[in-house]
Each structure stands twice: as C-alpha cells, then as structure tokens.
Design brief:
By secondary structure, the chain is of the alpha+beta class. Helices cover 34% and strands 23% of the residues. Helix 1 runs parallel beside helix 7 (193-212), helix 4 (141-148) packs across helix 7 (193-212) and helix 6 (170-180) crosses helix 7 (193-212). The chain starts with a helix and ends in an 8-residue tail after the last helix.
Length: 220
C-alpha cells in the first residue's frame, strides 16, 4: 500500500515532467475513481500546473490562479505517472491528455480516487483533521509525548492514526518502531519521552531514506 514515501517519490518525479503543462482532455474507463463532475473539470482544464504538493498520503496538484486543485489518493494500488506518448494497461482508470505528453492514473484494486476540490474547503475540512506531516513538518518529541500520554492503544496503532501523524502506514510504522527498539504492542501511555525522541529520529531517518529509494512498493 502506498504510504508517504511512495507519494512523495511520485510528486518529485511528476514535478520534473508536468510542471507548467496544461490538461486539455480527460478520458476515464471507470467513474468509480473519478469523484468530480464535468463542470469541475473545466475549472482546471487548459490551466497550467503551477505546483505539486503533498500532505500525508494526499497528492495535490494546483492549476494557474484557480482556487480548485486535483486531489489524488492512491488507495492500496494506485499509481500516477507521466509518459510522452499514450500507452494502455489493464488497470488504466484515468488518462489526462496534456499539451505535451500524458498523465495516467492506474489502479488495480480501485480503492484510490481523484477529486477536484476548492483549495480553501480542502484545507478547512480535510487537511485540518490530519496530524503533522511525518516527513516535512516540524514537530517535537515532546508534542508527540503530550498527545500520546493518555492514549491506551498500542503505539503501532497510534502511528497509523492519520489524526496523530499524517503519512504513515503499516510498513513504515513497523520499520520505525523496529529501528527505535520499541515494541509495537507497547501501550502509547507507557511510551516515555525518551522513547518518543528515539521514534521521531527513526521516523525522519527511515522516511528520508525511503524517498531517495522511491519507496518500497512492489508490483502486485
């Protein structure tokens, strides 16, 4: 399942290819993964891609001066990629024709989705509910300790909670706790301040290394 490093690797890859490109047309073979209307699509159509950002596991594509952005969630098996020429695959769900090249969204299990939402509404209703980004945002071990000291769930489960910290899934939460030498079954309320310092250090180290290696997703 794609987690923060996989989404960040995709963002960095796309940034080199699609920045300033315009989406002229869209083709979809599955309306389940497309959560926006034709009217919403026209809000981003023929507007230059001005930025690609990420929050947790959400990939966010911004267009021109529009208040609308394309939100991409990869679900379990989603993948976004650019090609100079059109290609087809058995799991192709959405194809965006650019003024130069193509942007594709493939998803075997169809748990991922694409949506076009207002920048303002998205940040108010969705991003405000997410915890600090596990890789890019500055937060301290003391903050984690303060928020976890009254929680009775296992620390592994707490790291999976996107309200607590955004971007982690089972793979990286397990790796982080292994490197930190903390039992994944330890109750969060018993995790000491020193433990959280070790966990935070392992979190930043593992996620940064994973991004440089383009994540750890394997072919289904």
């Amino acid at each position: 399942m794609p987690e923060l490093p996989e989404v960040e690797a995709i963002r960095l890859s796309l940034k080199q290819c699609v920045l300033h490109r315009k989406i002229s047309k869209m083709h979809t073979s599955d309306t389940k993964v497309v959560r926006f209307s034709d009217a919403s699509f026209r809000e981003i159509q023929d507007k230059p891609i001005r930025a690609l950002k990420r929050k947790g596991k959400h990939l966010l594509i911004f267009f021109g001066q529009s208040d609308c952005m394309l939100q991409v969630h990869l679900g379990m098996t989603g993948f976004v990629f650019y090609k100079k020429h059109f290609t087809d695959t058995p799991f192709r769900r959405v194809s965006f024709q650019l003024d130069k090249g193509w942007l594709f969204f493939d998803d075997m299990r169809k748990f991922g989705f694409l949506d076009i939402v207002s920048d303002t509404i998205f940040f108010q209703k969705i991003l405000s509910q997410l915890g600090p980004d596990a890789l890019t945002e500055k937060f301290t071990a003391h903050q984690l300790y303060s928020r976890a000291r009254h929680r009775k769930c296992a620390v592994h489960a707490l790291l999976l909670d996107q309200h607590f910290v955004a971007g982690l899934g089972n793979i990286y939460a397990s790796e982080i706790l292994f490197q930190a030498g903390i039992s994944p079954f330890k109750r969060s309320c018993y995790v000491s301040m020193r433990d959280w310092e070790t966990i935070l250090k392992a979190m930043k180290d593992i996620l940064a290394r994973a991004v440089t290696m383009n994540g750890s997703t394997y072919v289904d």
